[in-house]
Structure formats: structure tokens, C-alpha cells
Specification:
Blueprint lengths: L17 H17 L14 E2 L10 E5 L5 E3 L2 E3 L4 H9 L4 E6 L5 H13 L3 E4 L2 E2 L4
Parallel strand pairs: 1-7, 2-5, 5-6
Antiparallel strand pairs: 2-3, 3-4
């Protein structure tokens, strides 16, 4: 006499995605916490350190002032006389200008960029690095 192991129940045809959703959520949290949000630029400047910093929107115009007084708009070298034209061309519909100035840059250079941004109704953010605490 053969043994009958059937239970009379239909096999489960649906698949629950709850476990998969939990894993994807955990992976997302892991990558968000471990990834670096600092954008690496090709032009090296020593930006000043500050205690607090703010997140920057995805859409912005980047202006860099090097230690020797050179201006770069979105990593393209620009003569000081053409700075307003270059920022206006790079602006498009962007409302934020991020200024990355070397510590050796002068206030006059900063004021020049800030005045141009103000004339174009742009908000100016100064890029800094976190201050080292001991």
C-alpha cells in the first residue's frame, strides 16, 4: 500500500515581496550612509575650514579662485574681464553660484564674484571643508 503525502491544499502561486523590499531598503540606507557627497574638482585649491556646512543643490554654477588669482567658471579658465559674461553663459536657469576660493584669495576677488552673482540674482554659497576638531 503506497503512502499518500498529499495534503489536498493548492500550491502557493503568489510570491511575497516583503523580504526583498526589506533587503533593498537596507542596501539603499547602507549606500547612502557610506557614499561621499563631496564632488571632486580638477582644480586644486585650499578652501577655508568651517564648523558647519550646508548641502548644495544639484544645479549650480561653480566659480573657483586659485591662490594666484586665476578665475575658473565650471572648471574653464576665464580672464577677469570676461568673468561676468562667462557666469551669465554658464547660468542658464541655475539660481545658485558656489564659490570655491583658495585661502590665499583676496576679499576683492570674492567681492567681484559676489557682485556679479548679485547682479544676476543668484545666491552665493562659499565652499568650505569641515574644520578638524581635536
Amino acid at each position: 500500500m503506497p503512502l499518500d503525502f498529499s495534503t489536498g491544499k493548492k500550491p502557493l502561486t503568489t510570491f511575497s515581496l516583503a523580504g526583498l523590499t526589506d533587503i533593498v531598503l537596507l542596501l539603499l540606507i547602507f549606500f547612502l550612509l557610506t557614499s561621499s557627497f563631496v564632488v571632486q574638482f580638477g582644480i586644486q585649491v585650499n578652501v577655508p575650514r568651517a564648523e558647519a556646512s550646508s548641502m548644495v543643490e544639484d544645479q549650480y554654477v561653480s566659480v573657483t579662485i586659485t591662490a594666484d588669482g586665476q578665475y575658473y567658471v565650471n572648471q574653464k579658465k576665464v580672464p577677469p574681464d570676461d568673468l561676468m559674461i562667462a557666469i551669465r553663459e554658464a547660468r542658464g536657469n541655475k539660481q545658485v553660484l558656489v564659490l570655491r576660493a583658495d585661502e590665499a584669495a583676496t576679499i576683492k576677488q570674492f567681492a567681484r564674484v559676489a557682485n556679479i552673482a548679485r547682479a544676476l540674482n543668484m545666491r552665493v554659497l562659499m565652499a568650505t571643508e569641515p574644520e578638524e576638531t581635536s
